[in-house]
Amino acid sequence: METKYTPYLPWHVLQVQSGKEEYVKNFLSKNFSGITPFLPKRILLERRRGRMERSVKPLFPGYLFFTGSFTPEELILMHKAAFFKRFLQNERGEYAVVSQREMDFLFTLTGGSDFVDISDAAFDENDRIRVISGPLKEMEFSITKVDRRRQRVTAIIEFFNEFREITLSYDVIEKC
Q1: N- or C-end of the chain: fewer Cβ atoms within 10 A?
Q2: 117-151 burial string, b = 16+ CB within 10 Å, else e?
Q3: Whose CA is closest to 39, among 15, 63, 17?
Q4: Secondary structure (3-state) at 128
């Protein structure tokens, strides 16, 4: 299920039990009509029995984005749920709002879907990675680590006024 991005709506962050993000997204979609959840996921290449296979994991484990508001009754229900940890808040105790720039970046990274796809890359004669296409194309400048065996790169992004590392996969096309 794709999440429709509306730039003028405020987006917030819900911290949940790690590993339960998809369950919480479905729970919110079914039980809270005034809430639109967004769970950005990444497609990773993982080596299993000597072969590379695709798997899907949350981009930010333990966090779920949402827009909308909860009624007081819904808030009580959320606080009673075992998977719920907290709403990220600002210094005034209100739901912290994710900046429009950060949400624009997230929705650009996911290409309008819920998934950050695998990028196509190649290595030049100096063994430096060159991203040919995909979501990493715009992030080439922020790549800090390349794991050639696992076909993953680590990139630094600024999110919620902090620098965070995200790990994404790439497919090797050829040498540049």
Answers
A1: N
A2: bbbbbbbeeeeebebbebbbeebeebbeebeeeeb
A3: 63
A4: coil
Which CATH number among 3.30.450.20, 3.30.420.10, 3.30.70.940, 3.30.230.10 corresponds to the domain 1-117? 3.30.70.940
| Mean pLDDT score, 161-176 | 79
What the block records as the tokens of 117 is 């796809």
The DSSP annotation for 31-59 comes to: H-TTEEEE--EEEEEEEETTEEEEEEEES
What's residue 22's pLDDT? 94
3: confidence class by pLDDT, cuts 50, 70, 90: low
pLDDT of residue 66: 93
Judge whether residue 91 has pLDDT over 90: no
Of the candidates 41, 32, 31, the residue with the CA atom closest to the CA atom of residue 3: 41
In this predicted model, what pLDDT tens digit does every residue of 5-41 receive, in sequence order? 666 789 999 999 999 999 999 999 998 888 999 999 9
Q: How far apart are CA 16 and CA 24, in angstroms?
A: 8
